[in-house]
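Q: Joint fold for the lines below.
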Amino acid sequence: MSRAPRGIAFVLRWGSYLSAALLAVGVAWVATAADVPIQAGPAMPLRALAGQLADRNPYALMQLGLLVMLATPLLRLVIAGAAFARQRDWRAALIPVGVLALILLSVFLVRTR
Amino acid sequence: MLGPFLLVLIGLGVVAGFFGSLLGMGGSILLVPMLILLMGDFLPIQAAIATGLVCVIASSSSAAGVYVRRGWVDVRLGMLLELGTVAGAITGALVVTLLSATAVEVVFGIFLLGAAVLMGLRPPREAEEVADTIPDYRVRNYRLGLGICTLAGSVSGLLGIGGGPVQVPLMYLGMGVPLKIAAATSNFIMGVTAAAGALLYYGRGDVVVAVTAPLVLGVFAGAQLGSRLARRVPSRVVQALLILILLGLALLLFAEAAGYATPGRGGR
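A: Joint structure:
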């Protein structure tokens, strides 16, 4: 197996395991704690996440798990692009870069609207 | 204590993940309509769609990791088609903000009817290609592939489901890709496609962490269970059951859109 698929497989596998573990701990924490109220609103802002994790907010842990899950496919685009670039296969390397650019541009446009 | 509430959500996710995995369609095609029908009174339709997309990523990533390691994914083809699916997913996730909940319910109902018809026409699993060796192949019709994948991506971004029902037949029948490679590559593509849509929903504040997290866990567990039992359960039985479920959900969505009360909602 070439380097690109091996790196991609590693990122996808461990990214999904890590996010599932974070989600499981967060859900179990909320389910068993007597004093955690339901937080039915939207996800907390990213800048507040670190502080909420430090404050031992289980919803922050769940949100971190969801963010890891969202980031996993994006990270595999980076890994694929880097691996193809190392093989000097510039055409193949440009495709994941283009996909990633499209995603980041759309997120940027939605957030600044 | 929120234990019972979370258990219900996990259970819903397990059911959707289990049946989705048995049929190879992903759990979101069942989960999103179930959320709309059962929790529509307090969960906005866009939050249900966002949850569906996160569940697609969950079921795609873990399986795609295994398929890539086994050499079943055509990585280059997958990434090329992602240009189309991602552009489509972004379009779908933007278009949904222009549609009313009723319009999304009707579109979803039509999609479920179509999926039920396709499922009825599809040969049972035993008759499909299950060879361990992968024949040599030459990919053709790239333009057709990119075009249809853009359409599949927009359906994904609009309805919160994976694009498998469109992408697998396209690659297999239209692009000359062996079935096993087509199915694994479609699964590989779905993760990035769903992430593109889900990030837009997340950016708009449509992801409700308390609901999405237990559902994703349930889908994850249900999909693992379904993939283990897939060979033991007669595929004709599962196929017939899923057709009934898809038709039932479609009818309930049409009833909901028409203003009749459904199990979790008071109607409009």
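Q: Anything notable?
A: Helices of chain A lie at 3-32, 46-54, 58-86, 90-112. Residues 93 and 108 of chain A are 23 Å apart (CA to CA).
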